[in-house]
Amino acid sequence: MTFTVSKHIQKMSPSSTIAAMQKAQALKAQGKDVIDLSVGEPDFDTPQFIKNALWESVQRGETKYTATAGVKPLQSAIISFYERNFGVSYSPSQIMATSGGKQALFNAILSAVGEGDDVLISAPYWVSFPEMVNCAGANNVFIDTEETDFILTAEQVKRAITPNTKLLILNSPSNPSGRVIPADEFRKIVEVCAEKGIYVISDECYLLFVYPPNEVFSVASLPKELSEFVCICGSFSKTYAMTGWRVGYTIAPESWTKPMLKLQSHSTSHPASFAQYACAVALDDVENSRSSVKEMLAEYEKRRNYFVPALNDLGLKCSMPEGAFYAFPNVREFAVTSGEFADRLLNETYCVTTNGAGFGSEGFIRISYATSMERLQESIERIKKIV
Ligand code: GLU
C-alpha cells in the first residue's frame, strides 16, 4: 500500500538550507576538505556565562515541565530586554517561549492564516517562510525586491496586496541577503498593513547583528496602535551562538498569543526547562551579554569587509549587507542556473553554498560567512579557479 501524504504536507518542499548543511557534513565525513559556507550557524561557542547558567539550573533541579508560555524568569528577561533597548513595556500575557525561532514562526503563521488567505512574503526570503504558509494551507504571494536591491518598500507592499491578504512576513536583517530595511520604511510598511487590517510577523532572528553605522531596529519601537497588528518572532540561536539549544520566543497581542499557546500546548509544550533558565541569564546579565555580542559582531564585520569586496572582485556581484552574516551574490554571468553554479562550486572546489532558487531568487547563491577568516580566504582562492 502506498502512503498518501496529506494535502498540506504534499505542498511543502524540504528545507534547502538543512539539505546543504547535511551535504557538507556528509562530505566532511568522507574526509573531503570541505569549506562549509552553507548553513547560517555561528562558528563561535555559546558564551561561558550562559553555559554556566544552564548547569546551575540543572543542579537546582529545573528539569521538569514548565508553563507552555515558558518560565517566569525568561518572560521577565524578555520584557526587560525590550524595555531597556526599545523603551516599550510588555506584559507576560504577550510573551511566550518557543522551541527555536522556527516554532515561533510556525505558531504565529498557523494561528493567523489558513485556506483562502494570502500571505505576502518579500523575495528573496528565508526558505522556511513559504513552506510554513503551505503547511497552514494558505497561499504565498511573493514580492520580488531585486529592483530595489533586496530592500522591501512600502510601495511594493501596497502593490502586492490582494483582497485576501491577511498577513505579511518581514525579516530584517534579512536571511539570505543581509540587507536591512531602514527604520522609516519599516514603519511605512507596517502602517500600510495596519490601514488594511493586515497582520505582520517580524522575524527578528538577526536583531542585534547590524553593522555600524546602521542601527539596530525592532518593530517593538513603533507606536502602540501599530503593535496591535504585529507578532515579533525572536531567537537565541544566532545572537548567543546557541543554535542547538532550540529556544526562541514570540511577542504579540494577547489575542494572538492565546491561540499560539493553544497550538504549542498540543505540540512541544515548551522548550527545555533548563535551557529557558539559561536564556533568561543570557539577557539579564547585561554586561556579559553585551560584550559577547559585541565580540561576535566585530568578527563578523571584519569578515564581511574582506569577503564581500573579494566576491565582487571575482565578478560575483552583491551589495554590502548591513546585517546578519550572509552574502547573496548574482551568479547569472557564470551559469545558466544558480543550482548549476552551486553544484560546480561543490563538485570542483568543495565549497558548499546554498542555491538562491530555494530563497525565491534564481540567479543568486547564498554564502554564509559565519566561518573563520582563513577558510574565507581559502574559499576565495578556490572560487577564483572556476570563474
Ligand atoms: N536559519 C539558518 C539558515 O538559514 C539555519 C538553517 C535553517 O534552519 O534554515 O541557514
Distance between the termini: 49 Å
How helical, in percent, are the residues?
Answer: 40-55%
Categorize the overall geometry: globular
**Mean pLDDT level:** 97
**Major sheet size, sense and barrel closure:** 7 strands, mixed
What are the low-pLDDT stretches, counting only 5+ consecutive residues below 50? none
Query: H/E order of the elements?
Result: HHEHHEHEHEHEHEHEEHHHEHEEEH
Radius of gyration in whole Å, from Cα? Answer: 20 Å
Cross-sheet strand order for the largest sheet: 2-8-7-6-5-3-4
Structural class: alpha/beta
Please indicate the percent range of residues in DSSP E strands (runs of 2 or more).
5-15%
Beta strands, count: 12
Bound molecules: glutamic acid
Number of helices: 14
Secondary structure elements and pairings:
Blueprint: H1 7-10, H2 16-29, E1 35-36, H3 48-60, H4 72-86, E2 95-98, H5 100-112, E3 118-123, H6 128-136, E4 139-144, H7 154-160, E5 165-171, H8 183-195, E6 199-203, H9 224-227, E7 230-235, E8 248-251, H10 254-265, H11 273-284, H12 286-313, E9 326-327, H13 338-349, E10 351-352, E11 354-355, E12 365-368, H14 373-386
Parallel strand pairs: 1-10, 3-4, 3-5, 5-6, 6-7
Antiparallel strand pairs: 2-8, 7-8, 9-12, 11-12
Helix pairs in contact: 3-11, 4-11, 5-6, 5-10, 7-8, 12-14, 13-14
The structure holds glutamic acid.
Glutamic acid is lined by residues 15, 17-18, 39-40, 126-128, 175.
